[in-house]
What does this fold into?
Amino acid sequence: MKALLVIDVQNGIVNHGDFTDELSRMECIIKDFKAKHLPVIFMRHFDDIEESPLYKNSTGSELHDSLKGYADQVIEKKTPSSFFNTDLAKELKKLGVNHLFITGFNTEFCCMFTAISAFDRGFEVTFIENATGTTNDEDTYEMKGLDIRDFVGTVLHWSDVIEVLDFDEYLEEYKAE
It folds into this structure.
């Protein structure tokens, strides 16, 4: 069975840029999974540091209004991996999930770590590259011309164990099922 992870779509991240396209793609994928009665699990990252935009009791840590209405299940986490010290693996096993689709924020941290952790736990993984977003850019990493999503997608694709698709490829490959 397939399941969709929607990672860290929270005010403290989404409000730091224009993620209209990414959120629209995520919503389309969520609706597709819900129409097929497949599990959609939201991950919510929080920090204990009050200065963090994702401080647990702040509005920044809340799910963003654009997608929070779709959240039937929310699992909280405190690290980039959605699996580390959470009940995610247990929930997926209970649901009979063997194929996990990854969307959300931040591409190079929580989405990538989760994709690798899922593979390490025996899941088939599909990473939908342009249904992820990041608040970081080429200046953050001091790497002129860096396209973070493309870089992460390429690395995961080259691993030859994680399927990497863009939104249009997802629609072609999976929406027709």
Observations:
- Residues 2-175 form a domain with the Rossmann fold fold (CATH 3.40.50.850).
- The chain has a mean pLDDT of 94.
- Strands lie at 2-7, 40-45, 73-77, 99-105, 124-133, 163-165.
- Helices lie at 11-14, 20-35, 65-68, 88-95, 107-120, 148-158, 167-175.
